[in-house]
Amino acid sequence: MLPRSFYLRSDVIRIARDLLGKYLATRVDGRLSSGMICETEAYAGITDRASHAFGGLRSARTEIMYRLGGTAYVYLCYGVHSLFNVVTNLEGIPDAILIRGIIPAEGVAEMCKRTGKTTLDANAGIGPGKVAKLLGIHYSLSGLDLVDSVKNPSQAIWIEDRGIVIKPSAILTGPRVGVEYAGPDSLLPYRFRIQPE
DNA sequence: CGGCCGATCCACT
DNA sequence: GTGGATCGGCCGA
After folding, report:
1. Which of A6, A59, A131, A170 has the most CB within a 10 Å radius?
2. Which domain holds residue A160?
3. CA(A140)–C1'(C12) in Å?
């Protein structure tokens, strides 16, 4: 399991790149499922117009973003999709990373059940709404701690390092998706993904 | 308290 | 390529 120190670092861009190749895992309803993270987006605290915490906004929802690095921030998008984010940096600094894509690993049968499909195609885990759907992550899980099981009953969500190293040359970088409203910040190269084969 | 809209996905054409 | 689903968060009155 990734240690607290991984998440407490101050460079959210660096952490977003480092998360590529790590394994996001859940145990929901007693069922283990996991996938290798292949796409992420960084959201840089109160100065990033694309961030929910832009301008230092605090609300019942965004309060989670101000917690200690290693906290799960999950919110509802378009009234339909739960999107899973990892909070990073020190307590009080609302940096976060959206997990946009996984390659399914363990629990494929369970993932099929959750999505109502018989098989998973190559794009089954690409898209942030699909990540949460496959892994059984619901926005009610927002605030769980990815490191300290005392704050994460039955350790429902965590991230593992299985020793996979992604070469920098295999990482594609570009602007974030769906943040046109963020003006100049919509152009920031804060999206990272492993080059597909 | 009302209204607008979003870090999306899928079915359908 | 397009539009509908679907609802909580946030803002302005």
Report:
1. A131
2. 4-194
3. 29
